[in-house]
Specification:
This protein has about 180 residues and is of the alpha/beta class. The protein has one domain (about 25-175): Nucleotidyltransferase, domain 5. It is about 35% helix and about 20% strand. It contains 5 helices and 5 strands, in the order H-E-E-E-H-E-H-H-E-H. Strands 3-2-1-4-5 form a 5-stranded mixed β-sheet. The longest helix has 25 residues, at about 70-95. It is globular, with a radius of gyration of 17 Å. The two termini are about 20 Å apart.
Length: about 180
């Protein structure tokens, strides 16, 4: 642990002014793993939110509840992230950044389909009804717009699992930890 702290002492978040006229959109990146904790069989989730390419919120957490499937673990992470979307959307609105929906990049095609589809699924009936609140935010209210992202390009990957050093450096560079 001391070696890690010594090696990362020079790292810090960098906030810089954008020279281009890019829109200052709030967007997120999310990832989850299934039973990442081998002792208690709990899942890990992580997300990163950026505005104008600068990180404003992040979280990595070992979940309290045990998921019964990979899709449930990823769906639980998506619901947790959705709560943060609602909070951050209100925050950026105070800075006069108005947007209809927040783009959330996720590498789980299954969660994207499940969140958008209101039909009964025999294979997902074990997923708790309380988790389906996300469907209202995605389909009805259109607050969240899920976008598929490759596992290779997802910066939230570094918060949920061990990744190669090259990908870790690329993720840090993406979220402006230099």
């Amino acid at each position: 642990m001391l070696r890690y702290l010594r090696g990362t002492a020079i790292l810090g978040l960098v906030f810089q002014r954008l020279e281009t006229r890019k829109p200052r959109l709030l967007q997120g990146y999310i990832d989850a793993d299934y039973t990442g904790d081998p002792d208690q069989q709990r899942s890990t989730m992580g997300y990163v939110f950026t505005v104008a390419e600068c990180i404003i919120s992040w979280k990595a957490e070992l979940k309290d509840t045990i998921a019964f499937s990979m899709i449930e673990a990823e769906y639980m992470a998506a619901v947790e992230m959705s709560k943060e979307v609602l909070r951050l959307r209100g925050l950026v609105k105070t800075f006069s950044i108005i947007q209809d929906s927040v783009r959330v990049h996720y590498n789980s095609q299954s969660v994207i389909y499940l969140a958008k589809d209101h039909r009964y699924h025999k294979r997902t009936k074990h997923i708790d009804v309380r988790l389906h609140k996300i469907r209202q935010w995605v389909v009805d209210d259109k607050v969240i717009d899920f976008i598929k992202i490759s596992k290779k390009k997802n910066p939230a990957d570094m918060m949920t699992k061990t990744i190669p050093a090259e990908k870790f450096r690329a993720s840090l560079n993406f979220i402006k930890v230099l």
